[in-house]
């Protein structure tokens, strides 16, 4: 998962402030998770809206309102597992509902905002959701004990009921819910020890899978309110351009077209269905004013960033005296690296359905940040936020793209001109050419080695966009933000003298955004490629070189050793093939990967096998862990081999999957995932596989050909005849 990062505000919660119990409608038990912004809400008040809550009705069904969104990462299974574990219920008893937008009450405790990103859903939910389940269970047991006149210590919970062992009496949770709601909230309820887990750590079939298989699952693009029309649009092809003139005569003549909506920088065609809307759009004659960025191309952006690294930047981390150590180094290694703009290219294109009714607006969407959608839509319409109703749905691919609300804003701009609900769907071309892109970065990096080949100095200065500075300005302080630098600082290696600077440079007109692993997708490529360069300069094996620098990071060493062992590191490879290794500690998880690649005479690269070892702390659902790492590797392999958005005359050159290529099924590598057993709290996982595979592939190409890739994606011309 791609993501948002902001500091957590006032995260020191007492248990009583965190847990709010109230009587639910129908005489049930409602357990609310009231996060920092939600303090002071009165339990049972008419407008009480918890951050995430369990509702247990008379039928015993557990309803969980989810503050996170499911976009394929398994959130809607793993988080209910946390509650079910401590609540002592079967997952089959749990039903999920999407949380409404409420920034104050539904904020992720680690992010401080209501968002699903930063590989942070499980990390944010790990303690609080388990506490919620444990407190609810304790209150249900207390209610049963009070009913029977026995000591609660003689009762236990099991499979959604309370049992009194001595008398054999039993009561289902539904029977006890109303009484439990009247019980005092217990303090300091102990959580289960890992050895007592029944659900956590077991491979569980995903709760969202049946609906996705049988077609009943509802994504944002599936929504069809009564009387809905469909619209598609053309936005200015040049960043910052405007509409100069529109001739819609031919478009209006297309059967099924109802109207053409002209905005300052876009034109939309509203019709009975998508086919008619697309035909109408193609029939439009639009003249554009390309605006101030009409001459912009990729090379200009790259050179602007390169020039910026010649100056100074904000210091993100400094250890020792790099200049002094570099002066005495026996061997010096220098390099520059570049990574391109990347699009998200989610399978479900951008879409949003809106019904504007003068004084209120209703929105149906799949969003990673539903409160942001509400706030920005309200601002665009000039309405109070409580007049904008947002329904969230499953997402068919987010990768950070749906942390943005630009699609919803565009939809409400169109909907205010339409009588009745309208579903705005972007074509694939609009989706790719008007995305908000992973930033372009340029790095200037150097290191010094002593006589034995050990690094004595490391210096890096890089330039590029800060997504945090735009998305969450308070998170950008003193020229730095945690996303942009993650994976470049606090490395697991023993580096006695280390210096890193960041220079913020925003490219003109080009919107940048979170992209699955964002900062680490850039920084891990640079760091792990350069570690390999240092190993080569020292004439040492890349795995051995890394091991020698990990004496203070046993978890990192363990995954490195495991990946190397399972991959058969050191075994002979056929001509034209090579193995590459990469190691990282990002998102709170340790991963090592070994990629086996083949480079053929035409310069094309085939990734045959990837072996990954992961220490992610406690693996809540091992099945999801495997799937997420596999998914991240596939996503990152696509970026390594093909991913690049380029600009010419202020326009994105790539328009569809023929020019922005995805990894094909026949190109997919064999992937092995080996998970280290751990009782540490969970780390993040949705994005970790993506950031690591790119340097593993680049290092494998070097092993196969002797050619070092410092700019991605792979350039077949550079590798031609190398096989």
Structure in words:
Helix 2 packs parallel to helix 3 (121-148). The chain is an alpha+beta fold and 723 residues long. The two termini are 34 Å apart. The longest helix has 28 residues, at 121-148. It is globular and about 80 Å long. The model is unreliable at 1-27 and 32-52 (pLDDT under 50). It has three domains: 15-202, Aldehyde oxidase/xanthine dehydrogenase, molybdopterin binding domain (Aldehyde Oxidoreductase, domain 4, 2-Layer Sandwich); 220-291 and 350-425, Aldehyde oxidase/xanthine dehydrogenase, molybdopterin binding domain (Aldehyde Oxidoreductase, domain 4), CATH 3.30.365.10; 309-341 and 437-719, Aldehyde oxidase/xanthine dehydrogenase, molybdopterin binding domain (Aldehyde Oxidoreductase, domain 4). Helices cover 29% and strands 24% of the residues.
**Largest sheet, described in full?**
7 strands, mixed
User: What is the CA–CA distance across the termini?
Assistant: 34 Å
Number of strands: 28
CATH architecture field of the largest domain: 2-Layer Sandwich
Helix content: 25-40%
Instruction: Identify the CATH class of the largest domain.
Output: Alpha Beta
Q: Strand sequence of the main sheet, in spatial order?
A: 11-12-9-19-16-17-18
CATH topology of the largest domain: Aldehyde Oxidoreductase, domain 4
Shape: globular
What name goes with the CATH superfamily of the largest domain? Aldehyde oxidase/xanthine dehydrogenase, molybdopterin binding domain
Strand content: 15-25%
Report the average pLDDT across residues: 91
Please tell me how large the radius of gyration is: 27 Å
Number of alpha- plus pi-helical segments: 20
Query: Could you say which structural class the secondary elements and strand pairing correspond to?
Result: alpha+beta
């Amino acid at each position: 998962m791609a993501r948002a990062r902001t500091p957590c505000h006032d995260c020191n919660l007492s248990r009583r402030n965190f847990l709010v119990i109230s009587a639910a409608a129908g005489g049930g038990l409602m357990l609310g998770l009231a996060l920092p912004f939600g303090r002071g809400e009165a339990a049972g008040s008419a407008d009480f809206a918890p951050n995430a809550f369990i509702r247990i009705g008379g039928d015993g069904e557990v309803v969980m309102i989810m503050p996170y969104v499911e976009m394929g990462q398994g959130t809607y299974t793993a988080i209910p597992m946390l509650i079910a574990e401590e609540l002592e219920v079967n997952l089959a008893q749990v039903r999920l509902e999407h949380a409404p937008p409420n920034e104050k009450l539904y904020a992720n405790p680690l992010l401080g905002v209501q968002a699903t990103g930063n590989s942070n859903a499980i990390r944010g939910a790990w303690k609080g959701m388990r506490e919620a389940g444990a407190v609810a269970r304790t209150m249900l047991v207390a209610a049963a004990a009070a009913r029977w006149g026995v000591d609660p210590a003689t009762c236990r919970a099991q499979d959604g009921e309370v049992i009194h062992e001595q008398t054999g009496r039993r009561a289902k949770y539904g029977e006890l819910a109303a009484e439990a709601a009247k019980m005092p909230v217990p303090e300091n309820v102990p959580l289960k020890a890992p050895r007592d887990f029944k659900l956590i750590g077991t491979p569980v079939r995903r709760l969202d899978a049946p609906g996705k298989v049988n077609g009943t699952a509802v994504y944002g693009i599936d929504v069809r309110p009564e009387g809905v029309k469909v619209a598609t649009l053309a936005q200015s092809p040049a960043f910052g351009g405007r509409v100069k003139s529109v001739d819609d005569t031919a478009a209006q003549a297309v059967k099924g077209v109802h109207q053409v909506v002209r905005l300052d920088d876009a034109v939309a065609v509203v019709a009975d269905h998508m086919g008619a809307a697309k035909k109408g759009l193609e029939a439009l004659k639009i003249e554009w004013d390309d605006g101030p960025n009409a001459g912009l191309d990729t090379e200009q952006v790259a050179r602007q960033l390169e020039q910026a690294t010649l100056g100074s930047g904000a210091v993100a981390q400094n250890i020792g005296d790099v200049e002094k150590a570099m002066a005495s180094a026996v061997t010096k290694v220098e390099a520059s690296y570049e990574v391109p703009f990347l699009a998200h290219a989610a399978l479900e294109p951008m879409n949003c359905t809106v019904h504007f009714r003068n004084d209120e607006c209703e929105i149906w969407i799949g969003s990673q940040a539903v409160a942001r959608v509400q706030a920005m839509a309200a601002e665009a319409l000039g309405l109070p936020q409580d007049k904008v109703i947002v329904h969230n749905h499953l997402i068919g691919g987010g990768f950070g793209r749906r942390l943005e609300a630009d699609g919803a804003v565009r939809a409400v701009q169109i909907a205010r001109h339409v009588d009745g609900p309208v579903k705005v769907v972007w074509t694939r071309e609009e989706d790719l050419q008007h995305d908000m892109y992973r930033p372009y970065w340029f790095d200037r990096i150097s290191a010094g080695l002593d006589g034995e080949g050990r690094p004595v100095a490391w210096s890096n200065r890089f330039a590029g966009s800060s997504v945090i500075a735009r998305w969450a300005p308070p998170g950008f302080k003193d020229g730095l933000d945690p996303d942009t630098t993650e994976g470049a600082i606090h490395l697991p290696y023993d580096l006695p003298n280390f210096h890193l600077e960041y220079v913020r440079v925003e490219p003109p007109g080009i919107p940048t955004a979170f992209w699955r692993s964002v900062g680490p997708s850039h920084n891990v490529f640079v760091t792990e490629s350069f570690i390999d360069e240092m190993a080569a300069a020292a004439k040492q094996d890349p795995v051995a070189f890394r091991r020698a620098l990990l004496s203070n990071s046993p978890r990192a060493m363990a995954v490195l050793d495991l990946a190397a062992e399972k991959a058969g590191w050191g075994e002979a490879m056929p001509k034209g093939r090579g193995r590459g290794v990469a190691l990282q500690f990002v998102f709170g998880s340790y991963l090592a990967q070994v990629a086996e690649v083949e480079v053929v005479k035409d310069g094309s690269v085939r990734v045959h096998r990837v072996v990954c070892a992961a220490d992610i702390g406690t693996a809540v659902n091992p099945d999801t862990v495997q799937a997420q790492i596999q998914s991240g590797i596939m996503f990152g392999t696509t970026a390594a081999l093909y991913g690049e958005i380029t600009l010419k005359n202020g326009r994105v050159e790539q328009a569809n999957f023929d020019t922005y290529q995805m990894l094909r099924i026949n190109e997919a590598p064999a992937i092995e995932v080996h998970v280290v057993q751990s009782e540490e709290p969970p780390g993040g996982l949705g994005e970790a596989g993506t950031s690591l595979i790119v340097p593993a592939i680049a290092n494998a190409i070097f092993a196969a050909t002797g050619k070092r890739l410092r700019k991605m994606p792979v350039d077949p011309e550079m590798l031609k005849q190398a096989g």
